[in-house]
Amino acid sequence: MFLTGCSFIPTGGDAGNTTFDEDSAKQLSPELAEDVDDVLKEDIRFYPAFDENYKTGNNMVFDFWFDIPLEWNAVDNSDDGSACYILSGNDSVIIQISGKLIDEDNKDKDQFYTALAGKNATVEDFSFRDGWVGKHIQVSDNEAYYVRIDGDSYLIVYINANKDPEWKEQNGEILNNIVMSTRTMKESHGKYDTGEETIRREDLQLGDISVGMTYDELIEAMNRLPEDVASEEYEGFATKTLFFDDGTQVYVVDDIVYAINVTSPDYLTPRGLKTGHSRQRLEELYGKPSNESDGILGYTYNGYELFTVVIEDDKISQIQIDFGAGKIEIY
């Protein structure tokens, strides 16, 4: 069974003006926005995140991704769809992620950083979770920008907790996770990311089926329909767990395969592993696991345990693979 175990620069104008327009931001607070239909233009679409306490969202204009807590929300608050305002439930705190095209006026990145920083801010290198190095611009104790360059645009995270520094202190870990998760690919990076992978992306396949394929592709590869389906809703998306007659379980979100768990030896991994093999054979093919607990061995890609096996009586009883954007617990 399944293993358990948006281009708004908040400066009140162009990057040369470092005074944040708090009146404009106030209009975007969760309470006030309910009465301003043209502010909350569109909800952001969310998908399951690898961390079960988070969900991952996408801005389609600049194609950036970010993770926020399950109970939080985000909305598009820009005229052109290029900015996301994070709704934490505290309307005194501003959290915004936005994209800005690089043009003749801002192509000098050092000048751009300096303009955001103002007179007294510090500018330091900052490493995002995917390894990309950007800039951390600390304007004050409770106000900061985080900037990374993606091709022809700047990706900017802005946090202003001047009105409630105590809240920022209490939620520092969450804010750091949001900033660290900001990226330009749906696939994110997890807490076990050491730069040393124990598997490769091509390892995430079992027989003819793999994560990331569509439902129709899955059914074609399985050559049969599931014998049972358990459906539910996740953030407005249709999710379902498919149960096949050979014990295989598949978790599907928005028509995409997110996790596969097999108990049958008919599903050979690309390296030649299958259920029934010994632990010794597992380590011959994959090496030592990244993590191990109670007979569950995990191998990582981008810091996430995406390849997991269950050992019982020194034999592999289950193999599970997961999609990089969403760890599904299905032991």
What is the chains' assembly state? Answer: single chain
Helix content: 10-25%
Count of domains? 2
Query: Beta-strand level of the residues, as a percent range?
Result: 35-45%
What is the alpha-carbon Rg in Å? 22 Å
Q: Structural class from helices and strands? A: alpha+beta
Report the strand count.
21
CATH C-level name of the largest domain: Alpha Beta
Number of helices: 7
**In sequence order, what are the helices and strands, one letter per element?**
HHEEEEEEEHEEEEHHEEHEEEEHEEEE
Placed side by side, the strands forming the largest sheet appear as: 1-5-6-7-11-10-9-8
Low-confidence stretches: 4-41, 189-194, 325-331
How widely separated are the two ends?
A: 5 Å
**Averaging pLDDT over every residue, what do you get?**
81
Description:
- The protein is an alpha+beta fold.
- It has 2 domains: 22-181, Protein Transport Mog1p, Chain A; 201-322, Pathogenesis-related Protein p14a (3-Layer(aba) Sandwich), CATH 3.40.33.
- 15% of the residues lie in helices and 36% in strands.
- It contains 7 helices and 21 strands.
- It has helices spanning 22-26, 30-33, 109-117, 165-170, 172-181, 215-222, 279-286; strands at 42-43, 46-48, 54-59, 64-69, 73-76, 83-87, 94-101, 122-127, 133-140, 143-150, 153-160, 205-206, 209-210, 228-234, 237-243, 249-253, 256-262, 291-293, 296-301, 304-312, 315-322.
- It has an 8-stranded antiparallel sheet, sandwiched between helices. Strands 14-15-16-17-21-20-19-18 form an 8-stranded antiparallel sheet, covered by helices on one side. A 3-stranded antiparallel sheet has the order 2-3-4.
- It is elongated, with a radius of gyration of 22 Å.
- The relative contact order is 0.15.
- Residues 4-41, 189-194 and 325-331 have low confidence and may be disordered.
